[in-house]
Fold Restriction endonuclease.
Amino acid sequence: MQFKQRTLMQIADMICGNFVADKSLFVYRSSSRLSEFFMDCDTDYVHDGSTRQAWVAETLRAILAEPQPGPNTPPDTFARVIERLMDQSDAQNEGLDRPGAMAMLAAALAREGFEPFYADDKKCYLRHIATNTIATPRANPHRPFSAAELARREQLITYLDKASEDELIEEVLLPLFRQLGFHRITAAGHKDKALEYGKDVWMKYILPTQHVLYFGIQAKKGKLDASGMTKGENANIAEIYNQVVMMLGHEVFDPEIGKRVLVDHAFIVAGGEITKQARNWLGNKLDATKRSQVMFMDREDILNLFVVTNLPLPSGALPKDSDDDDLPF
């Protein structure tokens, strides 16, 4: 997405907080404060000592060159920049609703076909005027990662390399799915295999229409492949086949409604890679109905989602004498 240079310079001026007639409506930011501002937006941009307004304008241009969620939606990072810029706690020389600052930002963005507005959560969002599309910063697992996020990712990789299957479920998957909005997440555990019926975890997700979908998770620690036999920590997809069939055919009891319900979808989750051959093999074995109910998550999916949702690392993933709460991310 490309904005006109005039627009970029105007927004950059607001981010810098340059004074206008002795009454700036935006917080003044020195070189170090500009770096902090973009760090708050989950980026690695650090001011290089050059002219502040020009540097910020070029930084915004680079941000707008990132992948877009949709044709009429700016990149998520730009949406975070606008949200941070219009933080109501930064109001200067006006009320918390910042009418003057909002008018200045709206005048600049109107040139590009967008308008800013405050929602009920007191945060500032962008609306595409022609299509009424609203840009909301999302936990996009495919966006570029900051250096701090890459460091967390490497720590989690080290943890997954040594974690047991139960630790993968209890310390990684359960917190992750809770953060993603799933409810009533119940782990079957591995002490009594007879009680699993092919499920390591079952949970439910409530749609905006208030309809409920039930999910089962079959998790494996290592790689899932289509080799002739299981080797080491690698699991053969044929071993998962019967468990998936059992998962989709067996009922779970939901105590919140007092009824037994069928699992609607099955997640096959691997702490390692799920090979393309394994996915194809399982797809060929299942009939069309069951095939549409199966979803896959491998290590890359877990790592990316865990990082972008900003979950605390498992205690076993932290360096010795370190506390995740003390880390700068």
In short: The domain at 147-324 is CATH 3.40.1350 (Trna Endonuclease; Chain: A, domain 1). The first helix runs from residue 5 to 16. The chain has two domains: 5-135, 147-324. The chain is about 40% helix and 15% strand.
